[in-house]
Specification:
The chain is globular. It contains four helices and seven strands. By secondary structure, it is an alpha+beta fold. Strands 1-5-2 form a three-stranded antiparallel β-sheet. A two-stranded antiparallel ribbon has the order 3-4.
Length: about 170
């Protein structure tokens, strides 16, 4: 899920766009039958604090009894986004899970891997279920990026290779 970035000039438009997107998701969810739900993505907001910008999202999460993973874990890396020169960092990427599903969440990490190709850090969540499904081993966590280390930029990445590689990884667990 990608939500609009808060901007001073078009704050009302951003809130309306967020409201429209979440209404569309709700209308689709109403057609489904499910016990658990996971919603994740770039929310462009720190959802631990209610603001005018994220109130629509927080109401949506409350409607579906979703909690963010930081209610249970405190990862070593406390941001998911950093600008190209690593001077600004923020926690704007989230995974929210059904309250009952949160009990099965056994690990949550924000990781720094190279090469990343994005200004957002990957998030790994591991759930423990009683099943016979064999999942691939989780990726290794790294250290926080240094302030002077060059970071590959997402807009310069080979998207075909990225989608092929991530598809191969996720095909193993689907």
């Amino acid at each position: 899920l990608y939500l609009p970035h808060k901007s001073a000039k078009k704050s009302t438009n951003d809130i309306n766009a967020c409201h429209e997107l979440l209404n569309e998701i709700e209308s689709r969810l109403e057609m489904l039958s499910f016990d658990h739900l996971i919603v994740g993505g770039d929310f462009n907001s720190d959802i631990r604090v209610r603001t005018l910008h994220n109130s629509v999202l927080l109401d949506f999460l409350q409607t579906y009894n979703l909690s963010h993973s930081l209610n249970k874990f405190t990862p070593a890396i406390d941001y998911t986004f950093c600008n190209s020169d690593h001077t600004k960092r923020s926690l704007i990427d989230w995974f929210c899970v059904s309250h009952k599903l949160l009990d099965t969440l056994s690990e949550f990490n924000i990781i720094d891997v190279e090469p990343n190709g994005s200004d957002h850090l990957p998030i790994i969540m591991i759930f423990k279920f009683n099943s016979l499904i064999k999942l691939p081993a989780p990726m290794q966590t790294g250290n926080k990026p240094s302030a002077k280390r060059p970071v590959p930029r997402w807009e310069k990445a080979d998207l075909d290779k990225y989608y092929e590689g991530s598809g191969d990884y996720f095909d193993q667990i689907l």
